[in-house]
Amino acid sequence: MSKSTIKVLVILAFFLANPMLNPIPIAKAQENTWTTKAPMQTPRARLGVAVDGSSPYLKRRSKLK
Q: Which of 4-8, 26-30, 60-64 has the lowest mean pLDDT?
C-alpha cells in the first residue's frame, strides 16, 4: 500500500469519526478525487485506523475516563 493511500485512509477515518459532518466525503485514491455520499444512519465516533502491510484496520475506541 502506498504512502498516499495510507494518508487517504487516515484522513477518511478522521472524517468518519466526526459525526457532525454531513455529507460523508469518500476518497478515490487511484483517481486522486473526492466524492460525497449520504451520511450514515447511525453516527460513528472515536474511530482509530491502522495499516498492517496492505490491510487497513478500523477500530472503535472506547471513552477515556
A: 60-64
DSSP-assigned letters across all residues of 19-45: TT-SSEEEEETTTTEEEEEPPPSS---
User: Which three cell numbers, joined as nine digits, stand for 59?
Assistant: 477500530
Q: Which of 65, 51, 64, 53 is nearest to 12 (CA)?
A: 51
Which residue carries 493511500 as its cell? 5
* Total count of domains within the chain: 1
pTM over 0.85: no
65 lies in some domain: no
Print the domain residue range for 49: 3-60
